[in-house]
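quick one, 282 residues, struct below
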Amino acid sequence: MRKQKTKPFFRPSDLLAYGVLCLWALAAGYPLVWMVITALKKDAELYRAPFALPQKPHWSNFVDAWVHGHLGPCVINSIEVTLLSLVLGLGLSTACAFAFSRLNFGPLQTFLWSYVMFGFLVPDSVRFFPLMVFFAKIGLFDSIWALALIYAAGGIPWNTFFLRAFMERIPRDYEDAAVVDGASIWQVFKHVIVPLSRAPLLTLATFHVLAVWNEFLMAFFLTSSESARTLPVGVRMLTGALATNQTAIAAGLVIAVVPMVLFFVILQKHIIRGLTAGSLVG
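---
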């Protein structure tokens, strides 16, 4: 009887690939680990041994950053802005994508689609001054509503483009069956298209949360008081409020970065599933 050859558990090419990935993970993850280690030290210990582990964790640095660095209100503002812009932006994008993928409104459709896609071509650098003037005129300057509206509108072009491509791949048999059962166009959208689009919606929501949570320039130009300041701007202000406490500044950075790292790690499988969902529909 002929003996079958057993395949090696690891091929040389696999070992090389895993080795490169491990080096990349080490290079990408070490700054975050070092930042956490620094946040648990005192300044004297940091200057004496910057890369050593803390002899005793000093959790008071996080209290200093939260209270004396005024990061508490900034975190609340960032959560409110993120949730408001997420609901507004993704809700409008889903409705627009459904309209462009399922409805036919004649020659106007091409013009409106071009208008939505024009948002890709407008760089953020040319928006600052007009937006400052506009929101000052309507009384929303230095408010979380201004930031929420900007972030929501800024995500509509890409979200609509992504969702339209997905919805066009959903077989029309689903909605035809719903219409035969007496469903209106609104019910088709709510009970058929949106549930089937759950994977890409979750992916877009994750990217939106990450982008809004870390956005700095727009929040810096459109806010001037603590009542509307978001977390990235608050972290920038730590250098003034805690200029003599470097480890407390590191603690502020940890407060800003670690929640989003954990958020991404938890949802990474859903992100990949949403990015590949379009090829599996039907």
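The two ends are 46 Å apart (CA to CA).
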